[in-house]
Amino acid sequence: MKTIQFIAILFLISFTSFAQADKFTTAMQKGLVMIDSAKTPDDYTAAGNYFERIATAEPKQWLPQYYVAFNNLCAALLGKQDAETKDAIYDKAMQYVEKADALIPNNSEVYALKSYITFMKMAVAPQARAMSMIPKATAFAEKAISLNPENPRAYLMKGQNLFYTPEMFGGGKDKAKPVLTTAVAKFENFKAIGLEPNWGKNRAKTLLQQSN
User: How far is it, in rounded angstroms, from Cα 64 to Cα 68?
Assistant: First the structure.
């Protein structure tokens, strides 16, 4: 009798775990659909708020934290906010990508996103920040590449940073082109895993075309 009860308890625990995992996956998939259909800053803000609720409910999962950061980044990129507001949004994005980093240290996707956020925060006040933040963004991109040489977003970030960095500071289209060529090639072979990041292919192609 005790054996039967024990098996029943194990079954109940397993069933509950699977149900919770399925609920998480369904919620995340809904959020990814929101990202895919987003076109405006408000759309990305709404998606960011949605993932923030998931992140609160699932504090041990790194992907909700990542997507909060990504959506806030996109909202600031597309928005026409003043510099102070943009800074605050980028700070929030960095706060959440750091949370993702704490949950899954040394992840290439996380470091690629860190690079993106850092470079865009620099662009809010380039004269004051370029000397300190361009090297930091570059270092994040290089680390993303070293952590996963097959991650196309890591090369995209390095190439994009070079593309928008003046030649006098070691950037320029000529230096960006070979890195962006690699990014596009990596995207052709890249296969996203489950709920993990799958953005950037069109951006890489556009920047490469503009590098010619």
Answer: 6
